[in-house]
Amino acid sequence: MVTGAPLPDVLSLPRMARRLGITQTWLRAEADAGRVPCLRAGTRYLFAAAAVEKALAERASRQTEAAR
To answer: What digits encode the pLDDT tens for the residues 16-42?
Structure first.
């Protein structure tokens, strides 16, 4: 048995969009543009929830600072 860090919470596109309260279309477009981290497996998109939430929080912080 292998021990170590737990596996990240990996979600499909529909589940990640639902968790964030956004549309799948927006999330797919942001992932395709490289602005949201994801793993593409064929036609599927897989998201590490913590990584996506961190990326979006950092992006919001930068936008807030730029608006000042």
So the answer is: 999 999 999 999 999 999 999 999 999
pLDDT digits (tens, 9 = 90+) for 36-61: 999 999 999 999 999 999 999 999 99
- For residue 33, give the CATH number of its domain: 1.10.10
Element (H, E) at 51: helix 49-67
Which residues make Cβ contacts (< 8 Å) with residue 31, sequence separation at least 6? 13, 37, 38, 45, 47
Residue 34 lies in a domain: yes
